[in-house]
Structures are given as structure tokens and as C-alpha cells.
Amino acid sequence: MKTIEQFKNKKVLVLGLARSGESAARLLAKLGAIVTVNDGKPFEENPAAQKLLEDGIKVICGSHPLELLDENFELMVKNPGIPYSNPMVERAIEKGIPVWTEVELAYLISEAPIVAITGSNGKTTTTTMIAEVLNAAGRKALLSGNIGFPASEVAQTAQAEDTLVMELSSFQLMGVDAFKPHIAVITNLMPTHIDYHGDFEGYVAAKWNLQNYMTADDYLILNVNQDLAKELAQKTQATVVPFSTEEVVDGAYLQDGLLYFKGEAIMEADEIGVPGSHNVENALATIAVAKLSGLPNESIRETLSSFGGVKHRLQKVGDLDGVTFYNDSKSTNILATQKALSGFDNSKVILIAGGLDRGNEFDELVPDITGLKKMVILGQSAERVKRAADKAGVTYVDAKDVADATRLAFELAEAGDVVLLSPANASWDMYANFEVRGDEFIATYESLKG
């Protein structure tokens, strides 16, 4: 970790704890800052705050008193999930106090070059692919950021010969200042998190902060299947490396079933270890990073061929009696399920779908489910999903939960078929989150196998 002096004896307020806030507070204290932590959770219910206090860091819990900001803080580091409409954040901005997220701290102390990945869809899978490709080639890649490992914690152990591979959300990128990755990827940009950013333009602007300080010596990898990316490519100082599944570009692209980088064939698209057209895009972005990092083609091909996906994101769980099980519990909306189905022959798929009823119909899904072997339908939204199945001419059975659905789907399947959990719905009618739902699918597969 770099030794930096800029925080020495400076008063810094860390707003919001969780793991990233605790990491930021500890790092700032290590760098000589005078740190105060403010978290809404009461102190007696807040083990992280208790431990920080034991270690000599000031904590104020249970509320967010605005008068706290009269203490001449020179910096606020906030939890990414706290919106800028929060009164504490608004008051800090009024007072001219810089408001950062902890990824800026990670950048300032990291000895390792940074590969940063953002986007609306596919960023976790792409981040994981990139790390696995780098590690397989003997380059030590350290995962961090939105993927679950606070960047300011991981960066402290990164060596100059390592690579810090960071997944970044728009929330995190709103709070960067001088942040500068050596290689950056934007997987795609779709309207999302509008409640946080106000409009799509605000969301795109947050993502675009990724490249603010990049130069011609740095590489920005963009998905030029989107016209928006083509427009943005004209507005950066970075060297743009495009990728596309629709046209030949001066970067990574799909042509006649092969994945290329600058005219050089790397591998067949069908060799990618996870199905779906979206995963071809993810693999192309990964190939671009790998080739810019000087990795050999064979290592890239072998790693992407054996890639099993990210847990709950079109994750191959295993095979049983010739039937393959895929866990795509993260598919909490129609678009995600459409993408999942794009990687399979519908006539071989038993789809498990349904969940929280948000009041929407599933007509958009009809073309994508047409031709399915069978559906197993569950949850509050079951009647709405059944209407779409009827329109698509797909027969279905009812299930009471994911465990029941998985067993029913396996009974309906034959060798060569796929059992796909891709619900197109949130999980909250039955499960605390999509991870719990996916874990039940995996556990049921294991019990069937056992």
C-alpha cells in the first residue's frame, strides 16, 4: 500500500457503516486522519461500531445529527447506498465538503494497476471472468468493489505486480474524484436506478465518471452494440477499444461463430462455459482486457471454456441423469430471463418461473417462452405467468416453492434437457432475497443427486 500523507490530522466523517464504511474508517485512521463514524443503527445493536470504538475511533450512532457537520470536517466518505438527497450529504455539499465513496481511497493507496468494470447488466460476470483469466495466466488478480469485497480493504494488500479488479456501481462512481483505472470496461448502459439518479442522463453521467482522468495511455472498453457507447467514445481521452457481437470492429468481436481480437481468432463462441448471447458480450469484454494485458490465447480459451458462471447468475449447478441444472435466481425481471433463455434450445428447457407479484403482465416474455418443453410456475405472480404461458402455448404445472419446483422439473425432464431456474420475478414473496432462493435450488439438486 502506498504511503500517503494527505489525510494526516484531517477531520473526516464516515457516513454509514456496513463493511465498506468500517474498512474506510480503519484505513483513514491508519493514514493519520481524525475519524468520526456516524451510523443510523443504534450503538447497542451495532457490533461494527462497538469494535471501532474499542479501537479508538469516535462513533455516533442511532441518528444523523446535522449539527455534527459544524465540526469542520474536510472530507465525507459515505456508504454508496446513501442517496445524495440525504440531509447529511446535502449539508456537507452546501458546506463545500467533498463527498467520496471508499473506492477513491482504494485508488489513492493502491500499488497495483486497476481494471475497473461497470455497466447495467453483466458487470459481476465480466468482473469474475476477467479475474479468472488473469489468475489462470499467472497474474494475481484481486477482486474488489461492488462484488462484495471493499476496495479500500483489498487495496491495502495489493502489490505492484498484482491487478486490482474492481466492479463498480453508479452509486460508487458518483463519489470518485481523481480515480483513474488503467483499463476500464462499460458492459452496457440501460435505464436503471432512476430513483437514485433522477433520470437516465444522471445515471450515465455517474457511470462516465469512470474515465474522467484516463489518458491515451489507458484503455476504455465499450460495447458498441449500443449507439450510446459510440457517442460516448467521442468524449474521452482514453484509447477506446470497442467490442461487438453485431459488426467487425477494431477490438473484440463475433464473426461466423468465432470470437476475435483485432483480426486474431481466439476461440469459438460455443466454447464459452456459460450460455446466452449476453455472455458472448461478457466474454468479448474479457478477451479485450486479457489481450491488452498480454495474455496468451490458449490460456484465455481454456479459462473461458471452463467458466461456470457466477453464483445465481446462470450458474451451471451440475448434471444428473443427463439433465443439466442452471441456477439463474438473479433473474428478477423479464429482460434477465429473456437473456437466459437466449442461450438454450427451448424444446429442451423446463423453466421454473414466478415470484413476487408487482402487478405487471408477462406478455413481453411470450416470444421467448414459446416452444419450451414445460414450465413449472410458482409464487404470487403465478396467475400472470400462466397467462403468458397460455399465450405461448406452453403447458405447465404448479409448485409450492423452489424445492418442490426443482423436483417436479426433474421428473418432467429427460436426458439432454435443461432445468432452468430463471424466475423473471423478485423473490420477496417467499424468500429474503434471490440468493436464498437460488441456494434452495442448489440444495434440492444436491438432495436429488444424493
From TrEMBL:
Q: In which pathway does it act?
A: Cell wall biogenesis; peptidoglycan biosynthesis
- Known EC number: 6.3.2.9
Q: Which residues are in the Mur ligase central domain?
A: 117-290
Binding locations of ATP: 119-125
Reaction catalyzed: UDP-N-acetyl-alpha-D-muramoyl-L-alanine + D-glutamate + ATP = UDP-N-acetyl-alpha-D-muramoyl-L-alanyl-D-glutamate + ADP + phosphate + H(+)
Q: Where is the Mur ligase C-terminal domain?
A: 312-424
Q: Does the keyword Signal apply?
A: no
Top enzyme class? ligase
Supply the alphabetized keyword list: ATP-binding, Cell cycle, Cell division, Cell shape, Cell wall biogenesis/degradation, Cytoplasm, Ligase, Nucleotide-binding, Peptidoglycan synthesis
The subcellular localization recorded is: Cytoplasm
MF terms from GO for this chain are: UDP-N-acetylmuramoylalanine-D-glutamate ligase activity
The job of this chain, per UniProt, is described as:
Cell wall formation. Catalyzes the addition of glutamate to the nucleotide precursor UDP-N-acetylmuramoyl-L-alanine (UMA).
Record-stated family:
Belongs to the MurCDEF family.
Give the protein's recorded name: UDP-N-acetylmuramoylalanine--D-glutamate ligase
Source species, please?
Streptococcus caprae
